[in-house]
Amino acid sequence: MKFWNDWGHEVLELARNAARDNKKNRIVPRHIQLAVRNDKELSKLLGSVTIANEGVLPNIHQTLLPKRVGKGKGDIGSASQEF
Q: Quick one: average pLDDT of 2-16?
């Protein structure tokens, strides 16, 4: 029974961290999903489990993402517009 207590504690701790990263005070099913999917061991253990109201994690192939040209924040406003 100790295994399940440790497992539950680990999931809640990771979900709390995910909620904090998203600047939220409450843990919602989405945070539990993020915690499980981003942890290698938990993902292996709970990979086929469906969590209600969780949504989906975005999985965008690297070739479809825009290429990063700039190296910092200074490049954000440097583009000029022509009319």
A: 81
